[in-house]
Design brief:
Elements lengths: L1 E9 L4 H12 L10 E6 L9 E7 L2 H9 L1 H13 E10 L1
Antiparallel strand pairs: 1-3, 1-4, 2-3
Length: about 90
């Protein structure tokens, strides 16, 4: 199994768009079949922290790549690209 963890820092003033983005990611679970597990949320407001996080699981790296290319994910991801100032990610084998 592959764990896929992504964190974002969103630009100031984009709180509503960030909520829309997080809800969009939540909406992919159960729709894109490669996603085995998913947790996604916004930070509680602690200064200096990243703004949001996605923790998801896939059966294989191939499934993760299929998820990344899925048009439904690409559409949701495009909103994030417009509002983020930083992104970090790690993928690891469980």
């Amino acid at each position: 199994m592959i764990k896929h963890i992504v964190m974002w820092k969103f630009k100031p003033g984009t709180e509503e768009q960030a909520r829309q983005f997080i809800e969009g990611l939540r909406g992919l679970y159960g729709v894109i079949p490669q996603i085995r597990e998913q947790e996604v949320g916004l930070d509680c407001g602690v200064a200096g922290n990243y703004s949001g996080v996605l923790v998801s699981a896939f059966d294989s790296l191939e499934d993760l790549e299929a998820y990344k290319r899925d048009p439904r994910h690409v559409k949701v991801s495009s909103l994030c690209k417009a509002i983020r100032e930083d992104r970090t990610c790690v993928d690891y084998i469980v």
